[in-house]
Amino acid sequence: MKTEIIKTECVKEPEKKALYSLFQKFYANTDYDQFLADFDEKHWLIRMREGSRPVGFSTQQLIELPISGNPARFLFSGDTIVHPDYWSKSHLAGAFVHLFLRLEAESTDPLYWFLISKGFRTYRFLPVFCKKFHPSCNGENQNLKPLLDAIATFKFGADYNPETERVEFSQPKDRLNKQMADVPVSRRNNPHIAFFLKRNPHYCTGTELAGIAPLSADNLTRCGRRVIQTTEVEWHA
Fold first, then answer.
1. Which has the least CB within 10 A, 104, 182, 216, 220?
2. Are strands 234-236 and 2-7 parallel, antiparallel or unpaired?
C-alpha cells in the first residue's frame, strides 16, 4: 500500500472521481459538485492507495487567522474516509503527522488542528493522537475554546453554535450511512465515544462536533509519535 501527500491542484479529474466513488460508498446524501467544491478549497490530499485504487483519504486546508491581533494557523481536516478493510492501518494518521510537522517547521506562528466530527471514529483521532485538545470528556483545556470559536465562526459563520460547539448546516450536507454511523454496543462505554454521543446527539443527520488541538511534536501522544515512525510518505507537492 502507498501513502501520499499531494497538492490538490495536482489531482486530476479521474482521480477526483475515484475519491468520490470511495466517499459515496460510506456517506449518504452526497453530491459530486459539492464534493468538488469542498475539495477545491483544500490545499492537500492525503491518500492511501492499493495499486491504483484509493482505500482512504483526507483533505486538508491551511487557514491563517489572527487571534487577538496575533497570527495563528489552523490545519482544517475536510472530507475523510478509510475503507473498513483498512481500519487497522494507521497510515492516514501517520501522513497527517508528517504534514503538520513540515508546516510547523515552516513558521514560528502557532499551529492548531481544527477538526469537525460527524462520527465517533473521527472524533477519536483527538484523544488517540493529542495530549491536549478541546472539547474533551474531562473538561480540560478550556483555554482552547476561544480559539475554537474563532476559527469555527470564521469557517462556518452562523452554522456554528459556540454554546454547543456544533456545526448545524442550514443547507443539506452529506452524512454517514447507517453502516458507518452505527456505534457498536461494546464501544459505547468508552469515555471519549460516550462524550461524543452526548455532545453530538444528532450526528446521524450530519451535525458536526467541532474540536481543536495544538499541533506540535510535544502534544503528540505515544501513539502519535509511533505512527510517524511507521508511516512512509510520498510527497507530490
1. 182
2. parallel
Quickly tell me which residue has 485504487 as its cell: 53
> In what helix (H) or strand (E) does residue 120 lie, and over which residues does it extend?
helix 120-123
Residue ranges and CATH numbers for the domains of the chain are 2-236 (3.40.630.30)
Q: What is the pLDDT of residues 57-77, one digit of tens each?
A: 999 999 999 999 999 999 999
CB within 8 Å of 30: residues ≥ 6 apart: 20, 23, 24, 174
How far apart CA 207 and CA 220 sit, in angstroms, is 27
Instruction: Summarize pLDDT for 81-113 with one digit per residue, the tens.
Output: 999 999 999 999 999 999 999 999 999 999 999
The model's pTM is 0.96
